[in-house]
Design brief:
three-stranded mixed β-sheet; elongated; alpha+beta; 6 helices; 42% helix; 203 residues; single chain
Length: 203
């Protein structure tokens, strides 16, 4: 179906009042949305965005890999340190509370089914389900013998993913291929067309 308009489209020279910025601003739209959700205590919205960010970043960096593999690679590089701890009197036993595989399983379960149980997810590694809270308690591992649960403070979890995404943006700022792909990300426009002295433009 063709859409026609009487408006004349002319070569775009920029929007009125706009200034050139780096391609990172396209990713910043998602990070900003995440932070606004956290400020408004819209925890479900924040969690949806946060769990999507490793997917987006991983896809931009390793587009030829499958979704699970690139998600896990990105998690292990930018988030693993948050969820690996030394326990015992001298911290001699290193324990990973949350793996990239289990985080990807949560991503699949929550984004597609709205659930926190990951037992049926193919990529599930250790955990059976998650428990998110709004209090200050973070990263509590509960094993009752039949079920392994990781309790996370939702705000802190989302902020850690946001920080990881900011670090990733710094790491790839000189990668022209990734920067080019970032500019193709979805943008929500204020209007269908914009107008300046030269005519109408499609943003």
């Amino acid at each position: 179906m063709a859409i026609r308009t009487a408006w004349k489209a002319v070569p775009r020279k920029g929007l009125v009042g706009s200034s050139p910025t780096s391609s990172a601003r396209y990713m910043q739209n998602f990070i900003k949305a995440l932070k606004i959700s956290l400020q408004n205590k819209n925890w479900y919205s924040a969690l949806f965005i946060a769990l999507s960010l490793p997917d987006i970043c991983g896809g931009l960096e390793n587009p030829t890999l499958g979704s699970e593999k690139r998600y896990v690679l990105w998690f292990n590089k930018y988030l693993n340190s948050y969820y690996t701890r030394g326990i015992g009197p001298h911290g001699q036993h290193v324990v990973t509370f949350l793996s990239g595989e289990d985080c990807y399983a949560l991503r699949c379960s929550f984004l597609h089914e709205g659930r926190d149980e990951i037992t049926d997810q193919r990529c599930q590694k250790v955990l059976n389900n998650f428990r998110f809270t709004t209090d200050l308690s973070h990263m509590n591992y509960i094993d009752n013998g039949t079920n392994k649960t990781l309790q996370l403070q939702v705000k802190q979890f989302c902020e850690e993913i946001s920080t990881g995404t900011e670090e990733w943006l710094k790491d790839v700022k000189s990668n022209q291929d990734i920067q080019k792909e970032i500019t193709k990300m979805l943008k929500i426009h204020d209007s269908i067309f914009t107008k300046d002295d030269t005519g109408y433009h499609i943003p």
